[in-house]
Amino acid sequence: MATVRKLRSGQKGFHIEAEGCVVNIREGLTDLKGREVTSIEILPDDHYSGEQIWKLIGYVNNRVVRLKKRRKDGENY
Question: 69: which residues sit within 8 A by CB, 6+ positions away?
Answer without folding.
Answer: 76, 77
